[in-house]
Specification:
NADH Oxidase; 2 domains; 5-stranded mixed β-sheet; 16 helices; 17% strand
Length: 388
């Protein structure tokens, strides 16, 4: 009779150390509202390993493989808008990609990967009830990817969302071309298209679009209520909660008086009647002014299929992670302008207006920041995983 848990080996201990470093690195991945909606399980018991082997194509589990599973944590996902279903899986895909890159940099490359269909049931004992299984991978130890883990970890730590001003000088065309080309082997090549918009008329057209439509970020009651629930009044609160973003990260340095004013005006109970008086348009004009003041380039990403499935959504997140890490390594920052793709009518209008390829799921300002910003908070258990 086989034991319920296979004996620890030197290879397992090596994987333990690699997974600890990889999860700490992947925990720095971007997510909408910094909600961090992912979950990770290491499948280590004989029963869990056998179930993983079955999901990955049948046959017995291999003693030279380790198994991990990616989940969407429904307790942390955004749900106010239909488009959030895409955003959450893209966020999980960014985490998964960074995790697999960090493992491969330490010698553990994926040998088999399977994306599960929506609402797939996880056949693992002890699986958290609020998790949905997204993907399972088997990993084997060998040469790995050749990427330097220390450099990847440093770059992930340097990645920033910078909503403030960027230096106005144009970005080098060669750098932009390099960012459009994947430099790390993709699990799902050809799934995502990347475009850069740099011509003044394109940037002005986007600024005008934001001025006209970005107020919906604030005037949509359910969406703003959910956004506000992630708005932290101080860095101390953000660190305590381990998620969300601060007023300073949203608006830059604020005097005590302006901080109090923003705190009051952005309260959903106050903002909703103000939007009826046009305050949402004023806020949208502020975003448009930021675009005009210092945005040397826009980055857009789109799915190559009109109806992206589960694998496409994870691939979108993977491409986003690779892109953002490459941009951070080049000293660039991003400022996603999510409102323009979170509402289907706005997404279609923007695609037509700017001639964007594919089904757009990501639009961001891109540039060299003029000032440093602190990193976003992370949950105390962000670098941990479940063992099943």
């Amino acid at each position: 009779m086989q034991p319920t848990s296979h004996a620890a080996t030197e290879l397992e201990r090596r994987f333990d150390a690699a997974l600890t470093g990889a999860t700490a690195t992947a925990a720095l991945s971007p997510s909408s509202h910094n909600c961090q909606p992912w979950g990770l399980a290491r499948l280590s018991t004989d029963a869990a390993r056998a179930a993983a082997a079955t999901l990955l194509g049948g046959g017995e589990e291999r003693t030279d493989e380790e198994y991990v599973a990616l989940a969407l944590d429904h307790g942390r996902e955004l749900t106010a808008l239909p488009a959030h279903a895409v955003e959450m899986r893209v966020s999980c895909g960014a985490y998964w990609r960074t995790l697999l890159r960090a493992l491969a940099a330490q010698g553990w490359a994926p040998s088999r990967v399977r994306v599960l269909e929506a609402d797939a049931r996880a056949p693992f004992s002890g699986w958290p009830p609020r998790w949905s299984l997204l993907c399972v991978a088997a990993l084997r130890y060998g040469e790995g990817s050749g990427e330097r883990f220390a450099e990847l970890r440093t770059t992930a730590g340097a990645r920033r969302t910078q909503r403030g001003a960027y230096r106005r000088e144009p970005l080098d065309a060669g750098l932009l071309d390099a960012l459009e080309t994947p430099t790390v082997k993709e699990l799902w090549p050809g799934t995502v298209t990347v475009q850069h918009l740099t011509r003044p008329q394109q940037l002005e057209s986007f600024a005008a679009f934001c001025s006209r439509y970005a107020g919906r970020d604030f005037s949509h009651p359910e969406a703003w209520r959910e956004t506000h629930s992630y708005l932290r009044l101080s860095r101390a609160e953000a660190d305590m909660r381990g998620d969300g973003f601060t007023l300073r990260q949203l608006f830059g340095p604020l005097t005590p008086a302006r901080h109090l004013a923003k705190r009051v005006l952005l309260d959903p109970r106050v903002l909703r009647p103000l939007c009826r008086l046009g305050f949402d348009r004023r806020l949208a004009d502020g975003l448009a002014a930021t675009v005009r003041a210092g945005t040397p380039a826009l980055t857009t990403m789109g799915f190559t299929t009109a109806q992206p499935g589960p694998a496409d959504l994870l691939a979108g997140g993977a491409r986003l992670a690779d892109y953002w890490l490459a941009a951070a390594g080049a000293g660039l920052a991003l400022h996603p302008v999510s409102v323009v793709v979170q509402h289907e009518d706005l997404r279609q209008k923007l695609q037509a207006r700017l001639g964007l390829a594919g089904r757009t799921f990501f639009v961001s300002r891109l540039g060299r920041p003029t000032a440093a910003v602190p990193p976003t908070a992370r949950r105390p258990d962000a670098g941990e995983h479940r063992s099943l």
